[in-house]
């Protein structure tokens, strides 16, 4: 049975992940720059957060991305996203990329170090690049 809104639902979930991660980053940037919030943690912890976020992001992009099946030429986007194999693999990939971004943003907030913040921005860009239309082969 084909769900009539699978494609739309997947696009909404993806957009919510991108928007949420971006909003968290903007909020943390505001807290650190405008309110001058300082938790007092050193740059060493910032590097640790950056490395952790980078490792999680690399695992997602290099290992999990390949687990998403390609859309067959005779398969509509609706059929593709209605299949558990496609939808579940994509959502897992996106949430792990978002998790890497969250680790980066938390490292940025706690330390004020730029490195974890940059990894968080790379996570946002990665989410944008692995959008539903790109996965299904049309963008």
Give a description of the structure.
The longest helix is centred in the N-terminal third of the chain and has 28 residues, at 6-33. The protein has six helices and no strands. 75% of the residues lie in helices and 0% in strands. The mean pLDDT is 92. Helix 1 (6-33) packs parallel to helix 4, helix 2 packs antiparallel against helix 4 (84-111) and helix 2 packs parallel to helix 5. The chain is mainly alpha-helical and 139 residues long. It has one domain.
Tags for this model:
single chain, 139 residues, mainly alpha, elongated
Condensed summary:
The protein is an all-alpha fold. The chain contains six helices and no strands.
Topology:
Elements: H1 6-33, H2 43-64, H3 77-82, H4 84-111, H5 114-129, H6 132-135
Helix pairs in contact: 1-4, 1-5, 2-4, 2-5, 4-5
Could you list the spans in which at least 5 consecutive residues all have pLDDT below 50? none
Q: How would a textbook summarize the main sheet?
A: none
How many DSSP H or I helices? 6
Coarse shape? elongated
H/E topology pattern:
HHHHHH
- Give the distance, in angstroms, between the N- and C-terminal Cα atoms: 27 Å
Strand content: under 5%
Helix content: over 70%
Q: Could you say how many structural domains there are in total?
A: 1
Structural class: mainly alpha
Q: Quick check: average pLDDT?
A: 92
Q: What is the CA-atom radius of gyration, in angstroms? A: 17 Å
